[in-house]
Amino acid sequence: MAESLSINMPEMIPLFPLRDVVAFPFMVFPLFITNEEISVFEEAILFNNMVALIKQKEEPTDQLAASLNEIGTICKVNQLTKISEGGAKVVLEGLARIKLLEIVQETPITLVRVEQVREFAEKSVVSDALVSSLNALLKIALSYGRPLPDDVMKMIDYIDNPGRLSDLVALYVNLPVDELQKLLETIDPIERLKKVYMSLTAEVQRLQIKGEVQAEVTKKVGKTQKEYLLREQMKQIQEELGEEDDRQAEIKELRKKLSSAGMPEEVRKITEKELKRLERINPASPEYTVSRTYLDYLLGMPWQTATTDNRDITQAEIVLNEDHFDLKKVKERILEYLAVRTLKEKMKGPILCFVGPPGVGKTSLGRSIARALGRKFIRVSLGGMRDEAEIRGHRRTYIGALPGRIIQEIYRAGNNNPVFMLDEVDKIGVDFRGDPASALLEVLDPEQNFSFTDNYLDVPFDLTNVMFITTANVLDPVPPALKDRMEVITLSGYTDEEKEKIAVTYLIPREIEENGLTKYPLQFTEAAIYKIIRDYTREAGVRNLQRNIASICRKVAKEITQKKPPREIITPELAEEFLGPRKFYDEVAAEKDRVGVVTGLAWTETGGDIIFVEATRMKGKGDLILTGSLGDVMKESARAALSFVEANSADLNIDPKEFTDMNIHIHVPAGSIPKDGPSAGITMTTAIVSLLSGRQAHRHVAMTGEISLTGRVLAIGGLKEKILAARRAGVKKVIMPERNRKDLEDIPDNVREELEFIFVEDVREAFIEALQ
Ligand SMILES: Nc1ncnc2c1ncn2[C@@H]1O[C@H](COP(=O)(O)OP(=O)(O)OP(=O)(O)O)[C@@H](O)[C@H]1O
Question: Whole-angstrom Cα distance, residue 579 to residue 529?
Fold first, then answer.
């Protein structure tokens, strides 16, 4: 049995508490101390150059005694060197384990009473084996590159005392400070040696794996970059340990997708490259998310995925009829279009363009086409779109960049052959951010769109399978290049009778269903529907009609839930009770026949409308004043009207002085609504003649027509809308250009029967009909 050496200790010694280190016996080590701490070591001279080094516990306390561990090390101060920057370096040598007995004094320096902890180690087969194993293990560690000071290595060869060996080696094993303190507190040398042995074994194992990995990786990648090497190592280690982190799983998943994405070869290569890049990016960096989102788009695009078209045209016709009333010509044209598409696998254009006032069913026709073909339906509104990037996307170099709407929607649809409706092509804008119309051209042009390249996606995507349909209220603002590629199908407004039928067959059943009234058989009388159409809406389409019907259904639903007896029949009175006082009146009936006020017919984006052109005069120098938000063309036609009247004043019995001593003012009320176009020429001429000749104008006579300087009446557009508006407003007689006679064919019979039409070639014929 060997007992540790007994140290000749003074009765008390100075204490130096340690924070992040543990001192071991036999260890020679430097300690850097502050100026305040120097006195402890200077005082040591009085105590045989000895100090007690005890590590403080982790949990902070104010009391010194409570903060200290019980076991520490008594050390000899070998050297004390003051440093010029302040503080000092002390070289200490660990002598033996000590146990803290008592704190004798705390200030100015702490003095403690300690006793040496005696260790007894019995030399045995076990201790011998442990010592030689530890020796061998240390050499292995050394061979794997674990650094050990030379002199330590030499000493180890000679030490056969297990306690000493364990204390010496403990310092060179990577252990947390807490573990080291525990090791210090392990008094039994054999036990301590075992612990050190275990720790060293774990470390050697780690080194071993690392070494193997390193060798394998080096073989694989040769002399590639350092960063890459380290990542490979990490990957290998993870595999070795059976761990695969989320990121690996993610990348694996992306690779799987890549193999089944059905991309064209060049896109596949780009995706592959991006995937490799992703593997190298730190997942915590923002760049990772950017790359990840990009890959999501690349892999998620429906490169090959498409729905199978229903090629049965009869079935398509059934669907169209199911969803929409009448629209015979439109449906016919759509079916022809579908037939050609069915026969020809890849049909190059044209793009359908539905033009008409709001609420006439342009969007819902698009939806029906999709339903008839069994394709997905996408709708994007181009209204107010000014930025080209909304169509073509932003380059990925921009923060928060995304693809344009076309690619986004196709990605979302997950099919490369949806019916894609682009609403409001007439409202597309142009500004400094580019010209969305030209970007749209790339999308729609069958000559280009097989390789549409979105700025974000940066690879071409074939849009030839997409069926594009555009809609517009008016065609004029659509850029000619776009117009050129479109096949225009015009939808005009509905007559009251048509609206009534649409309400009965489509809108009412739909709203009953939507508002949960299927169990309560609600019925609208014909008179009630007409009342809603005439007194609560003034529109070419049926959107407000649908809204009013929905409003009544909601009110009925509310009453039912309030346990009131359900209303079964909606009469005109009940409609009024639900919808409140009527909103529109018969405009013409509300007017009087006047001098200088003539009823005209106008055509706006929202359909036809009637206007009252007013002319008045006041003393002046023959100026023409125009008000009422008139556009340039309309202003010019007012000047032409005045010139015509002045040039023909003799025939019209008008005093020529009217044109030199008076100012003429023409106003078209509803000033907030912009008006333009030449078709009010006839109305303005008639209003001036009425004013200057003092003849009253019949308010029930409405007119439309462009005039030339010689008084010829020229053809106009939008006739159907205008005639429907005339009828809505209570007009009895419509004066229109002879050249528009053929267009009367499009006017439903019942409307034609109700109105009287006068076709004129010369404006003077209109005076006879309209003026008293
Ligand atoms: N002929 C019709 N038969 C049945 N329902 C119709 C008909 N025309 C329009 N509708 C209905 O009227 C509503 C409005 O139509 P929709 O939204 O398609 O109008 P729109 O012409 O696209 O208008 P906007 O130009 O404002 O987009 C829809 O609920 C639609 O089903």
Answer: 12
